[in-house]
Structures are given as structure tokens and as C-alpha cells.
Amino acid sequence: MKTIKTYINTLLLLVVALGWSCTDEFLNEEPTTALPSNEVFESITTADAALVGAYDALSSYSFEGLYWPIMSDLMGEDVMLVPGADNWGWFVEAYQLELLPGYQWTESPWWTAYKVIYDANQLVAYAKDIPGASEEQKKEIEGQGKAIRAYVMLKLVQLYAPAYSAEPDALSIINITEPVEANSEDLPRATTREVYAQIEADLLSAVSLLKNNEEDDRSEDRYDEGFFDKRSANALLARLYLDMEEWEKARDHAKAAHEGVGLMDLAEWVNYGFALRTSETLFTVAYTLSDNNTYLTIPSFYYPVAGYSSIRLNDQFVDMFSASDARKDYVIIQDDEIDTERHFTLKFMHNQQVGNAERIAIRTTEMYLIEAECEAELGNTSEAQDVLWEVQKRVFSRPSKTTASGQALIDEILLERRKELFGEGFRLNDIKRRSLPLVREGNHWADADFTYGDDSYYRLTFPVPQSEIDANPMINEEHQNEGY
User: Fold this and answer.
1) What is the model's pTM?
2) Is 79 helix (H, G, I), strand (E, B) or coil?
3) By CB count within 10 A, which of 5, 136, 403, 462 is most buried?
């Protein structure tokens, strides 16, 4: 299995050597010394350490910690890089929609993701046989492994394949679900339909294996938003079914995800929303100075000081917010000392010191918006209006509940997604899954103007990394994504 085998020796050492820091005592424990893979699951202690190692790898700046959420917005129309030397060369090709198979922006997310999948496959395969572990502990490890694997696979397929709703039988990612060794058989690219079926099976199983993180359980080691639980697994199912346009399933799982949690109020949104965990956080990826490069965090690229500060908001996107919308407080219209021409956002800030941050990856507002979109698609106009109003009224997005229906209501919900979720890594996939046009206007310095079916639409899908093609005899240039 050349996708993994090149890295196998390193991974065996890393699988339990890395610890993930956050506020929970369990995550601050010193990880077990690196062990051979056949010893990792000899006890619940070493299995727990392997689980922490998988989450640590997930937080890597080359995947979920930075690259994926940053590029997924930069490749849309709402955010942009500053031009010239001030962008430090970071993400320029992604913003310009000029990715090539050998670029680091293409290579790094792929390989980091498969490192996490490697870890997750071990968790799933060996959880049932951990000596001395209770059945509940075994289920927890297995459920966590399946949720991690599904989370990573969903992000990979969204990046490296056309949208399920448009081309379900297109070639997708490599569907690896078993632990691999150096002599394991190489695998070809699976279809998008096959990958989504695997993700669905993993998440349905994870929902049955995991329990909800409840406030009363926070004193226990694992009951923390830094680990997947039943709610966040349901949230991933909602995302999955939204891509598949299975509206009833997406709605029902979105409701299951936010049941009993609710939305954070305006004070939380303004004061804490994206630097700290809040009442609506369902899953977060935390990174700290101790295990990440100080400036390779999301706030470093968005925040106007203490970092690269190279991402701005497009002026026409800013104009989409009403004057009364409290979220506009996060948009500084002009500051002559920092940038006289472009808008920046204070939505993402460092936590207490530069290098500490939270990547709030799943929150209940997204689930409300999924629910609203699904109700609208199902023709349940009143229900969609009511759910959308819950999101809008707390930030004064509009003075009263919408009376829109049909496509106009769907369009309003999609606009609310843009305003609420900007910078959180959703825009690229929203464009692809709805086969929307990409039209950049206003103060963008890299133009884009194409619709689904145009020759340039392939630019929204990443190419398969050249290193994968070179190493894997089951994938050659003929299997590369269209346009590359």
C-alpha cells in the first residue's frame, strides 16, 4: 500500500508519541512512550494514548488545523488574500484557483489525512480486543475511530472529487478501512458513491457506539468537545446527507445533533464565539504553543496583528450584512494604521497568547441552518422560516421573520450560511454541492467567473497529488481529475 507504506515506520512511532493539549485533564496527560503497533492496543491506557495521537494528527496545520478551512474559503468569493509580498506566499495558488498536482497545498492535506486514517483504522480494528478493557471502553474507542475516519474521509472527498450531487460515480479518494503494512496491496481510487457509503456506515455505527457529552460528565476524562460524541457524529451525518441531497435524513440528524444544546446568545457570539468553546460547540480542534508552530494557526492569518494577517473580506461580501446585523461588529470597515483599502475580521482570535487557538469545527448554528435548508427543500415553508429566524433574530440579521418561500427562501438560507459561517471552511463545498457559479467581483485581485459545466469549473476540485500517482501503480495519469 504505497499510499501509506512510505510513511509506515514513522507512523508506528508517532501513533502514541503525540499528545493533544486542551483544558481537559485527560488530554494534558503525558502520552505513552512510542510503541510498536502490535503493542499499542495491549491495554486501555495505551489505546487511549493512540486515540489522543489520532486527534493530535487531525489538528495538524497541514490539514484541519489550518490548510483545509483556510483554502476552503479562499477558493470561494467571500474572503481573499492581500496581494503582493504581504501574503508571504501562503495559499496564493489556492486563492488564484491554480493548484497543480505537485503543489504543497495539494500534497500536504492528502498525506496528513491518510496519516489520520491510518491511526483511525487501527482504533477500529483493534478496539474489540483490548485486554482488560470494559465493553463500554471498547465501544468508545471503536466509535471514536469510526467518527475520526468518517470526518477525514468526508473532507477529503469534498476536496479531491466533484460533488456527490453532480457526479456520484466520479473517481474519488482511496477508500482504506483496514490497517496496512508495508506489503499491503495498493488500492485504486474509489467512486464518490462508494466513499459516501463507507462514511455513512461508519457514522451510523459511531452514533450507536458513542454517548453524548453532557455537562454533568465533564469531570470524566473523555466527555469533552475535543472528542467526537453521539451529537457530533449525528452532525457529520447531517453534513453527509446534505451533500447527497437526502433532505429528510439530513434534517433529522441535524435536529439530533443540536437537541438540548441550542444556540449561543449574542453576548457569547461577540465576546467568546471563536476564540473559546461556547455553549453551542459540538466539536473543536484545539492547538497550542506546545504542539503547533506559533503562527500556523487560523487566527494568525485572519487577525490584524500578531501573525501573518494576510486574509481580508471581500467588500461586496461585507455589503451583504445589514447595518443592524451584530455580526458586522466583527468586520472593521477601515483602519488607516493597518489596511486602508480592505476589510478584515476579528472573528478568529488567539486564545490568551499567540499560538493558542480553537478551531470550532462543528457548532449548533450550522445544524440549524442545515435543518432550515432541508425543510425548505422539502416544501415545509413555515418550518424553514421558523428555524432560520432562530439564527437571524439573535444577531439582528433582519427586523422580522422572512416571508420568502420556494427558491427565494432557499436562497436566503444559503446567504445566511455565508454570513454566519464565513471563515469556517464551508464555502467551497457549498458552491460545489449546489453547482453554483463562482463569480468574484469587487476588490478581488484574482478573478473568477464561471458556472457549472464551464471548462473552468474543474478548478474547484483539487488534483490527485503527483506523489500518489508516482507511488501507487493502481493510479496513473489517466485517473487524474479532469482538467489536470
Assistant:
1) 0.91
2) strand
3) 462
